[in-house]
Structures are given as structure tokens and as C-alpha cells.
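seq/struct pair 1
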Amino acid sequence: MKSGLEIERKFLVKMPDLKKLNLIKLVDIKQTYLSDGENGSQRRVRKISCGNKVSMTYTEKNFLSPVVREESEKTINSAEYSSLLKDAKNTAPVEKKRAVFLYENQKFELDIYPFSQKYAVLELELESPEQKIYFPSYVNVIKEVTGDRNYSNITLANAGKFPEN
């Protein structure tokens, strides 16, 4: 299992024109949250589809601060995926498209949810919490939502909409 610190910030953005992004890839993600792990860690399985290619991962996260998490992740096979789904929380799975693009040597991940054509969530993994972020001019950032539970994947999936701003 690959482990390490994840330093990430999230932003609510107006849906950008995907044609303007320097897209690396566009994938479909189905993410299912599992019952909490030891010490209250957040557990999930994720199925990622890109064309005909499908991969699955199991992830555990411990939240150290709103920006910093301890994360362990491993690739799993379909049998492990099916077995882990038996431990799913009674919540809606998260279904989204993820557009990955580069700008100024930064790798952004734009999460596009099926319930909104107006908004998306832009994520960026950082080297440090204080790292300067350079946003493309064609991405309209409404506000930072790092650590705001109203914009967590599980809350968005259960609500089926973005909170009112």
C-alpha cells in the first residue's frame, strides 16, 4: 500500500470551457465510502473508467488538518472491490467526471458532478499548505471550500446539488 501525506486545497468554480483546459485526461469516477476504519480513518473504494480501461483503488485517509491528510492507497482487483462494497456506508456513491489539466507546472483536478452544469470543484495537491497557487484566467474561482464539509464528495452526492452560495 502506497502511503504518504496529501496536502490538498479545493475551490468552488464556475464550470469552465473544457476546450480551454490543457487536458491530460478525462475519467469517470464512481466512489463508494465504507464504514470508518481504525482510529476513525475514512475508507473508500473507487472505480475509475477511461475509455475501455477500468481500474479500482482502496483508500484510507486520516485528516490531520483541513488541508493535510495521511493517505494510504492501493490498487485492487474486481473481487476485492466487490468484497469491500459489502462494507459500504448507507450513503449515495459519488459519481463524477474528473478533468485533469496542467497550468503553470501545476496539476489541477476538476470534478464535474452530473447534477450541475454551472459549478464544479477544482482540487490541487500541493508541496506545502502555504504554496502559492496560480489559477488560469479562464477558470472563475468563486471561493475556497477546503475543509468545508458542505462541499465534501459524500455531502454533494447525498444532496445531489451544490449548497446555495
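seq/struct pair 2
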Amino acid sequence: MQTHRRKRLEIVVEKKRAAAVLDLLDRDPEVTGWTMLPCLGGRGHTGTRLPEGATDALDTVVILVVTSEAVAQRVMAAVLELLAEHVGIVLLSDVEVARPAHF
């Protein structure tokens, strides 16, 4: 099976900020799609977040985008600007896809 190189952009953001990130992605004609997953918890430099709270105000989601390197770099810069004053993690990694026309 032949595979093709793409970039995987992972954006971990508070649920209340997800709509702004998704709007940014939807406005880019070269972003062909995204997936959003719930984040059940984690621990980082600001402490631990667990899904045990009385409210979901601090819940986070993970937004995944697979795209070309050029698009990933442009989107990553825009997301970092959008989240400059907010909680968020942005990761970029190499992936191999089997159906390149989808990405």
C-alpha cells in the first residue's frame, strides 16, 4: 500500500474557545475537514484537569486537522495568534495517509 506524507495539527483548547478555532478552520478553503474529540483530563504545567467538576466550564477538546505542510504552518500560526491570551496546546507532527485526495 502506498502512503502519502501530510501534517497532523492537534489543537487542545478549552471547550468555550472551540467555536472560534472551528470558525478559523472553516474559513480556510484549503482545510478540507477537521475532527473534534472530548478531552477527558490531563496534567501539564498549570496543573491537573479531571472530568469530575460540577461544571464543564474548564473542559477541553482536541481538534485534529490533517493537511499539507504549507496549510498546516499557516493554520498553526493563525491558531497561535487566536489563543495568545488563552489556554491551549498546539502540536504539529508528520503522518502518512492512504487516501491523499481527502487531505
